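Protein modeling request. Please complete all fields; requests missing the sequence field cannot be processed.
Requester role: graduate student
Desired output: 3D structure, token encoding
Chains: 1
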Amino acid sequence: MAFEPKSAEIELKYTKTQNTETIPVVMTLTSNDGAISRVISVSANPFIESVVPSAGNAQIDGKLCVKVLVERVEGGFSCLEGINNFTVHLMNKDINIDSEIFATAKLLSVNSVQASEQAVTFTSNILVKPIMLASEKIKYIAELPLAQQKKDIIEYTDVVAGTAQDFDLNLELDLPSSISKILCVESKVVLSKAEAGNDLVVLHGENYTNMIYLTADEQPKLKSQKYVQEFNHELLANNITTADVVTATLQNAVTQYELQGELSSTKGTILLKNQLKANIFVRQNKSYEAVVDAFCPNYLLNNEYSSFVSQKLLSSDLNFEKIDGSIVLGEDSPRIDKVLAVCAGNVVVKSSEISDDGIKIAGALNCNIIYVLDDDNASTQSVFAEVPFNINLKKNGINDDNSYKLNIVAKEIEARNKKSKEIDILAELAIETTILNNVTEANLQAVTLGDKRTQNASAMGVYIVSQAQDLWEVSKALAVPSELIMEQNPDLQFPITSPQRLIIYREKHL
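Delivered output (510 residues):
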């Protein structure tokens, strides 16, 4: 008996997260503007510059942009800026020279801050997350001659493109009145949505900027000003249509600024140039018709099944959550007169998990608070504050089969001295979430012919079909073609809702 199943093959492409790496980066900044009295705040922003794959490994190169606010011995403030390189070596036997690998970097903590007269040294701990575009060949049965076959449409999602693009996001902000000097400008961009257009990708999000400056008074005061601006930015992407699904991650690289107008004038503006890098993945929803089950009336079949996981984008959005906390100064600390400024905060996610109605997130907001003491000299001091938080981010329809990505940035941070030695901290966090639905698809990949079936010798058979069986299940159990069952039992209705009697007449050859 000739039995040759007709098989076919598809190549499934998907994103595969590699092992994360945490690396320390030691940074030293030298002051050219007078001797340093103390460090007020440290801001560090890492980003990935390039990924170069080779046989069995990949080299991930990044940069760390740093801004350190210091007070000088002779009085006044300065901002030290610098950039340092870092490298991560990713080891994986599946990597080859043609592999497409992407990565993002996030600051975890800043430790061991030491200041000398002319330099500041500290260590930044950076978390690097690599993602590789992987492929898997899926074999499936398209036709099974001489067998009863059940066909179905198998749906899956395929990554058709992955790209890392550098681009600039330019914004214009109004300067506050009575300003004499800008010390530093920090800017962070959070993505709320990525959409596919015709030959382009549109990114939507918000830009959060924190500016530390000196007032134009006789005795300049240190203050901070926060800005929030929405943005829409288009990136060229050939052969992409509106039917495609796009996911993206944004990395903040370098922020540069240019002043227009006089600093002391209320009409002055600051032009921001944010250098960004976007990792963009384009997915297409595809399908194919395959045999998902089979049997043969005369022979037993050996069916081999396999399965693969397909990821479909469930949601990608931006949520806002408010947190609060407080910090109490030591007993020996002088009384606080007022808070001057809050330097831009860094959010660290310590754990996250899917709950019954969303995602549980535990982490901490770290920031530097600058305040004035209630003493004769009105001395300026600063304190490092850590605000722990536990957030239950509400997400309908999320379950354990979903995978997710979080990116959290401090949108607003407000600090005020509630008591003489206590500072209350209020903050609003912008939480970017991307949720993917993992769908497991069954697949019949091979069928071989087994032993000959033992044929029933009786001319007629009576069977009781149990409840909740469909026509295919009954046909396979009895090894009888479904057409014959319905021809001989025209009153039978499927699916079966209560036990039914079924009669099969068998043709006899004399």
